[in-house]
């Protein structure tokens, strides 16, 4: 047990309704000051075996409950999250450096919503019967079994519960492998779920690194679904590991999304949307980091974005005034720095930032804007996952759309225009799972979410989640 921001957090796994230790541990480091928060149990194949066995044992009981009975428990989990919102917010901020004010203003209520929404949805989930030559066909959503869930550090609790909520509501049991860079709130979630009456073994948490705990989970023959949120290279490894067991996969991966700004736009809005991309220090999969601006307004747009970005307050994420915090780890800091140095060597010009924040030191990387990067260069094509925006210009709609679609990813795209006709035309041509028109980040939990190309496999949200977490069955009755 450790104490973080005044909150007690159990550093062991949660398996079969009990805390389980490991012989080995890993150190959890806070990005705020690179201090150690404590030693966390480092699981491996043995702990994964235990957790999958516990989830398999709990499955028949949980699956045989009605959606309404499961829903009652899951809504109590949501209530428990709401009751401990401030604890969760403080611990997550300390653990991964995300802004405390973001958690207070919405992230943690969304975490509770991930349980409430899918619990309610499962109760109403129904497909109308079909008729063929006098036969009646009934479509039902049966629980699939054990769901393995592997998640990243940038929004650990939100991204984990976005998968856990529907998986449990569908009647599946879960083994979660949280990120080693931000493992703590998953442990608090296990406490909350237990206190809410979630039966033993329905939700299991195995802590550990990707190589030691994630790998044995993804190749485990006892899992029936695998949900992964993370990077493309890891996704490839996981897909190969899961392939021999023919386990259905849901992948939410990286992005390199465009912010497409047309000359007919509301420039204030465009500038707001651009500056918003520095949120979470740019460690956001959906971030629209490639700014594509129509020639005639490019100079003014760029000048205003730079002016606003320069005024952002960088610092300790626990301070409500902070706009931009630190990067999650030393390794990630070096990775982001490397991207910017290579871009500059490759001809890009630094219009803002371009290096560590010299006053703050540590893992604080200054908000950075790069211009004149070479078409096709690394900085325009690879995901940086840091506070680094690029600006490119285009002449007309066709060129703007072409540049926006010049990516192997396809997670999201944002376009800013004052013309409803252009909004219709351009959004239809953009290659992205989500297109935002004159807005950003707004999304109902019932809407499909996922990416095209290298940004992922499949969609989740609403019925799409149940399509994945369930064995959808068709029963045909003779006349
Ligand atoms: P990552 O791929 O390094 O790690 C993600 C998870 O996979 C961690 O829990 C890690 O321990 C585990 N893992 C690592 N190697 C593994 C292996 N061999 N086998 C099994 N599991 C393994 O990603 P990250 O650095 O934690 O997160 C950043 C990435 O996540 C970015 O690419 C970002 O775009 C993406 N992301 C996507 C979404 C989305 O919804 N599309 C949301 C957030 C983040």
What's the layout of helices and strands?
Elements: E1 2-4, E2 7-9, E3 13-15, E4 18-20, E5 25-29, E6 36-41, H1 45-64, H2 67-83, H3 85-96, H4 100-124, E7 130-132, E8 135-143, E9 146-150, H5 156-169, E10 173-177, H6 184-195, E11 203-205, H7 210-218, E12 225-229, H8 232-242, E13 249-252, E14 258-261, H9 267-276, E15 290-294, H10 295-310, H11 330-345, E16 349-352, E17 368-371, H12 378-381, E18 388-394, H13 397-404, E19 412-416, H14 420-429, E20 434-437, E21 456-457, H15 462-469, E22 470-477
Parallel strand pairs: 9-10, 9-12, 10-11, 12-13, 14-15, 14-19, 15-18, 17-18, 19-20
Antiparallel strand pairs: 1-2, 3-4, 5-6, 7-8, 8-22, 13-21, 16-17
Helix pairs in contact: 1-7, 2-4, 2-6, 3-4, 4-5, 9-10
The structure holds nicotinamide-adenine-dinucleotide.
- Strand tally, please? 22
Query: What is the number of helices?
Result: 15
Q: What about the largest sheet?
A: 7 strands, mixed
Instruction: Name the beta content range.
Output: 15-25%
Shape: globular
Query: What is the average of the pLDDT values?
Result: 98
Which strands sit side by side, in order, in the main sheet?
16-17-18-15-14-19-20
Secondary structural class: alpha/beta
User: What small-molecule ligands were found?
Assistant: nicotinamide-adenine-dinucleotide
Estimate percent helicity. Answer: 40-55%
N- and C-termini, Cα separation:
62 Å
Which segments are poorly predicted (pLDDT under 50) over 5 or more consecutive residues?
none
- Radius of gyration, Cα only, in angstroms? 23 Å
């Amino acid at each position: 047990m450790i104490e973080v921001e005044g909150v007690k957090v159990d550093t062991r796994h949660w398996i079969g309704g009990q805390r389980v230790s490991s012989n080995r541990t890993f150190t959890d480091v806070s990005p705020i000051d690179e201090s150690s928060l404590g030693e966390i149990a480092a699981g491996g194949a043995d702990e994964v075996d235990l957790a999958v066995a516990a989830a398999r044992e709990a499955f028949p009981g949980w699956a045989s409950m009605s959606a309404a009975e499961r829903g009652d428990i899951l809504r109590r989990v949501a209530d428990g999250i709401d009751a401990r919102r401030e604890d969760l917010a403080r611990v997550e901020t300390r653990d991964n450096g995300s802004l405390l004010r973001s958690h207070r203003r919405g992230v943690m209520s969304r975490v509770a919503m991930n349980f409430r929404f899918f619990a309610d949805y499962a109760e109403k989930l129904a497909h109308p019967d079909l008729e063929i030559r006098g036969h009646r066909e009934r479509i039902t959503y049966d629980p699939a079994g054990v769901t393995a869930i592997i998640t990243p550090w940038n929004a650990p609790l939100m991204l984990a519960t976005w998968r856990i909520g529907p998986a449990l509501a569908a009647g599946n049991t879960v083994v979660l492998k949280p990120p080693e860079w931000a493992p703590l709130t998953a442990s608090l979630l296990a406490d909350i779920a237990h206190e809410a009456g979630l039966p033993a073994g329905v939700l299991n948490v195995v802590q550990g690194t990707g190589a030691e705990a994630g790998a044995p989970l993804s190749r485990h023959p006892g899992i029936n679904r695998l949900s992964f949120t993370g990077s493309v290279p890891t996704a490839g490894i996981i897909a190969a590991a899961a392939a021999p067991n023919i386990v259905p996969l849901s992948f939410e991966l990286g992005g390199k999304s465009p912010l497409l700004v047309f000359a007919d736009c509301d420039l204030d809005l465009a500038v707001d949307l651009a500056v918003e991309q520095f949120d979470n220090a740019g460690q956001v999969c959906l971030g629209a980091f490639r700014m594509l601006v129509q020639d005639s307004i490019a100079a003014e747009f760029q000048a205003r974005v730079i002016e606003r970005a320069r005024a952002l307050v960088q610092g300790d994420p626990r301070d409500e005034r902070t706009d931009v915090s630190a990067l999650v780890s030393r390794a990630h800091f070096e990775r982001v720095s490397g991207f910017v140095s290579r871009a500059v060597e490759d001809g890009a010009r630094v219009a803002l930032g371009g290096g560590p924040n010299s006053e703050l030191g540590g893992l604080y990387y200054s908000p950075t804007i790069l211009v004149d990067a070479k078409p096709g260069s690394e900085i325009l094509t690879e995901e940086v996952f840091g506070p680094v925006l690029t600006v490119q210009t285009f002449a007309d709609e066709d060129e703007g759309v072409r540049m926006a679609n010049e990516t192997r990813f396809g997670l999201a795209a944002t376009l800013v225009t004052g013309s409803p006709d252009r909004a219709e035309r351009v959004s239809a041509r953009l290659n992205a799972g989500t297109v935002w028109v004159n807005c950003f980040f707004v999304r109902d939990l019932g809407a499909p979410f996922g990416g095209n190309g290298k940004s992922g496999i499949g969609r989740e949200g609403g019925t799409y989640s149940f399509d994945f977490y369930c064995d959808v069955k068709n029963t045909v009755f003779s006349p």
